[in-house]
Design a protein that fits this description.
The complex is a heterodimer of chains A (599) and B (317). Chain A is an alpha/beta fold and 599 residues long. Chain A contains 22 helices and 26 strands. In chain A, strand 19, helix 18 and strand 20 form a beta-alpha-beta unit. Chain B is built from 13 helices and no strands. The chains are: A alpha/beta (599), B mainly alpha (317).
């Protein structure tokens, strides 16, 4: 394709004829005999070479709108009115054959989760080849910057990492050289570093090929970085539409303001509390008493999966009333460590102790009293609650099991109290998990964990699956609870901005090894390890003009020696020894040997 | 991949060994003495003792087990107590007749029900789906001997197209048996098909709702290509094991249906030998059923491997 389009569109340029125009689009979904409107009167236009972001929380209809560009409606959905025109064609009026040609050639889609969007039984090279015939597969794989394309094309999707899968999905979308690219949450399942790589790639390809792009995202950081224009959707309606800079500089609608205010920022030095009109107040961090007792102590913990070492000699303490964050990208071993503490995976070395017992034993061998005191909250509340039990039941069970409630009646009363404690209406206790929203379910997950009156709470990516405004509420709840109950909390997250707001201390993990640790303020003020800097550089702020918190990330190599592992920066802030990788060293085995593992 | 195959084959052999022990023990545990059974209640103790010696019944059980297994591995299953002929040859003859029914049944039932199941899944909630689902449900709920009887009524009595019963012995030729194969095969197929249809339908619906099928559609591929290349390999995976279990079930189902049609197959042989206490034959038939089960499941496992690259590429990086 010859690119006569401007390489980098700038705002305020005279509008070229739109390649996409959506006019008062309405879609409804048939459920239980009733038609529920999911998209209502949505209109927008998009010119060649420009990027429009559709922003909204779950249920806003943003993905439904995006899919209509390819003439696709979910099973059970119906077009109620309006038109979608792409490159001059009314997509819902096209005969099947023409529609297929449009999908195969003019518009292409990159789906949210490449792990699910690639056919598991087909080699990726063939899947790409199927999508278009003009460009050789190997060229496409090279174009999405995948190493060793010939070898990669012969692999099956499960043999690729999440980032590689997403690159393959992008190559597949570009195979037919489309004019419009629809990106549905293209980086949502990926960790920050991988996300940054994918976004840079998409931006480069978009400019290189002069594509018009529709980006669906709930992540305002991603939107700020990628889009020229933004449409904010809520319950199927456009709340606000504006050029990106204008929107982020001064949103007009309260909903947009609230959404923007809910995004945690790397510069917050405490938890942001968001008001109804989007006013933002940063609550100062709770002070942990200097003499607060240590609740959990891990010394030199090692966890193996077969021959792969997922966690390598990690040491830390969590005191009562303190939140300690474990940060790292997927595969860093942070979740493995959390699971070990919870007793789901026995460590292969080191010690883990709690004031009242040994945590190195798996949960089933721990005495009930100790099991009660150490509780885990899962990442996905929707899959960790029994779908056939009411949520009240789910909370009552540990109450009876651990004997915290002596009889049925008091268990019932306590369960309602717990539902109230997590700021929910006690009437919700009679509902099934499927009848609650994601945020409500996660609160129930927390209430269930609190039922045993633990003093240690392990929170494994508990806000990752939630919308930003809900995330803000759950974070506030967690912060309140640790103040009220003096909980010792181990908070696992890959999102540095979230960690900055809530954690008192931070441990940065890479390939199962702690590379930097210290009080949150100290680490964020002066990230001293290149990996920490890389994570911070990759984090996206909800501001198109944000300057990265750190600029330079040097190439580096691990320089820790036995007995001389740390560089001490004072005040508990210490950094694993490293040096610039200028010479032709082989990287240290301890850091690079573990690439497998669960995070 | 080779390791996977080797593990499966080893497990299959282990299962066979265990089932041979169970078959042997179960028959040992039967009440009554075989020699007394054969000679009748009035036999003199001397005659019983002689026969016991002749049959090897005075040996300890484990010795008899190993003799039996050693023989079985060489194709020698002993001599029939009733006919006095070698069991191996007799069983093989009946088995071949049953295999004729089985092959016809499998060919039609498996392909037919897969196609119907896939169609029902693709046209979910439309009339084709309702028709297929209802009919297959009816087929599943009626016992095979009823289906067989109804078929005889329709296609032998009302419309004299096929023979109602077989008048030949076990040594009948394929040509003689072929006209009689269809009704038993149809009866078995009707009962068997329902499970496969329902399983295929459910998994096709599951897979068609999956994200990768949507992705394939949105690539602009034709429905045929989406279904055959993207959906079916995954949709067939859970169906495979249902097919294997059904094929194995044929061994039992055949016994009932063969008796309805007086068909000289393995099921009929089994029934007569049990009635006659012809232990060597019963043992041989039971062992063969076990082999059929194990082989079917092994085939399903290997088929699953062919469809699922995750199993094939295990251990490769």
């Amino acid at each position: 394709m010859t690119s006569t389009q401007p390489m980098t569109p700038t705002e305020g340029e005279p509008a070229a004829p739109p390649v996409v125009s959506v006019d008062s689009l309405s879609v409804s979904y048939r459920s239980g005999g009733r038609d529920l409107p999911v998209v209502h009167d949505v209109s927008f236009e998009l010119a060649q070479g420009r990027t429009l972001a559709l922003v909204g929380e779950s249920g806003s209809g943003k993905s439904t709108v995006a899919a209509t560009l390819l003439g696709h409606l979910r099973h059970g959905s119906r077009l109620d009115g309006g038109t979608v025109r792409v490159a001059g064609h009314d997509v819902f009026a096209l005969p099947a054959r023409e529609l297929r040609r449009l999908r195969g050639g003019t518009v292409a889609m990159v789906a949210q989760n490449a792990g699910h969007a690639l056919t598991p039984s087909m080699r990726v090279g063939r899947q790409i080849a199927e999508a278009g015939s003009d460009v050789p597969v190997l060229d496409l794989l090279e174009q999405v910057r995948l190493p060793r394309p010939a070898d990669l094309a012969r692999r099956y999707p499960h043999e690729l990492s999440g980032g590689q899968q997403q690159r393959v999905a992008i190559a597949m979308a570009l195979a037919a050289r489309p004019r419009v690219l629809v990106l549905d949450e293209p980086t949502t399942g990926l960790d920050v570093v991988t996300q940054r790589g994918i976004l840079d790639l998409v931006a480069a390809l978009r400019d290189e090929l002069g594509l018009a792009a529709v980006l669906v995202s709930h992540d305002l950081g991603v939107v700020a970085r990628m889009a020229d224009e933004v449409s904010v959707l809520r319950s199927g309606r456009v709340v606000e539409s504006a050029p990106t800079r204008a929107l982020f500089a001064g949103a007009e609608q309260p909903y947009t303001k609230r959404l923007l205010a809910s995004v945690p920022r790397l510069t917050d030095d405490g938890l942001a509390l968001v008001g109804d009109n989007g006013e933002r107040e940063v609550r100062a961090r709770a002070v942990v008493d200097a003499d607060a007792p240590v609740a959990v102590s891990a010394q030199d913990v090692t966890v193996d999966y077969g021959t792969a070492r997922a966690v390598h000699g990690v040491t830390f303490d969590v005191r009562r009333g303190e939140i300690v964050a474990l940060v790292g990208e997927s595969g860093s071993g942070k979740s493995t460590l959390a699971w070990s503490l919870a007793g789901l995976r026995a460590p292969s070395g080191g010690t883990m102790t709690h004031g009242s017992g040994d945590l190195a034993r798996p949960a089933r061998r721990r005495p009930a009293a100790l099991r009660r005191l150490v509780q885990l909250v899962f990442q996905n509340a929707d899959t960790s609650l029994n779908p056939r039990r009411t949520v009240g039941d789910a909370i009552r069970r540990p109450l009876r099991f651990f004997g915290t409630a002596p009889d049925r009646r008091s268990a019932h009363a306590r369960a309602l109290d717990l539902v109230r404690d997590v700021r929910l209406d006690p009437a919700l206790a009679d509902r099934l998990p499927a009848q609650l929203s994601g945020g409500q379910r996660q609160r129930i997950g927390i209430a269930r964990a609190l039922a045993g009156e633990p003093d240690v709470l392990i929170a494994d990516e508990i806000t990752t699956a939630l919308d930003v405004s809900v995330q803000a509420e759950v974070l506030r709840l967690l912060d309140d609870l640790r103040r009220e109950r003096q909980l010792a909390c181990l908070f696992i997250s890959h999102d540095l901005a979230v960690v900055r707001g809530i954690a008192d201390r931070v441990l940065v993990l890479r390939h199962g090894v702690v590379v930097e640790e210290g009080p949150t303020e100290a680490v964020f003020a002066d990230p001293a390890h290149p990996y920490t800097r890389e994570l911070m550089a990759a984090a996206l702020e909800p501001d198109p003009d944000a300057r990265p918190l750190v600029e330079d990330v040097p190439d580096w190599t691990d320089a820790a020696q036995p007995g001389d592992v740390w560089t001490d920066h004072g005040g508990g802030h210490r950094v694993r020894r490293w040096r610039p990788a200028d010479t032709s060293d082989t990287p240290d085995a301890a850091v690079t040997s573990v690439s497998e593992g669960v995070s | 991949m080779l390791a996977f195959v080797a593990r499966r084959v080893a497990a299959a052999i282990g299962t066979l060994f265990l089932s041979s022990v169970l078959v042997f023990l179960a028959l040992q545990a039967l009440p009554g003495d075989v020699a007394t059974q054969i000679l009748g209640k009035d036999a003199t103790p001397d005659a019983v003792a002689t026969l016991r010696k002749q049959l090897g019944l005075d040996q300890p059980a484990w010795e008899r087990y190993f003799d039996w297994i050693k023989g079985a591995l060489h194709g020698d299953f002993g001599t029939s107590l009733v006919s006095g002929k070698p069991v191996g040859g007799e069983v093989a003859q009946y088995l071949a007749n049953s295999a004729l029914i089985a092959v016809v049944t499998i060919l039609f039932a498996v392909t037919g029900s897969l196609v119907l199941g896939i169609l029902a899944g693709l046209y979910r909630d439309r009339w084709a789906d309702h028709l297929i689902s209802t009919v297959s449900l009816v087929g599943m709920s009626v016992p095979e001997f009823v289906v067989a009887t109804v078929l005889v009524l329709c296609f032998s009595v009302a419309l004299p197209w096929f023979p109602a019963v077989v008048l030949y012995g076990p040594d009948a030729s394929v040509g003689q048996l072929l006209p009689a194969v269809w009704l038993p095969a149809l009866a078995l197929a009707i009962v068997m098909a329902a499970y496969i249809v329902r399983m295929a339908r459910t998994s096709v619906i599951d897979v068609m709702a999956g994200e990768y099928v949507t992705t394939a559609r949105l690539k602009g591929l034709s429905t045929w290509r989406v279904v055959t290349r993207h959906a079916l390999p995954s949709a067939l995976l859970p169906t495979l094991h249902v097919i294997a279990l059904n094929v194995a079930w044929l061994v039992g189902g055949v016994a009932v249906v063969e008796n309805v049609f007086n068909y000289p197959g393995i099921g009929k042989l089994m029934l007569t030998s049990v009635q006659n206490r012809d232990l060597p034959v019963v043992q041989a038939v039971a062992l063969i059923s076990a082999v059929v089960y194990v082989v079917c499941n092994l085939a399903a496992d290997l088929g699953a491997m062919a469809l699922n690259p995750k199993l094939r590429t295990r251990g490769r990086t």
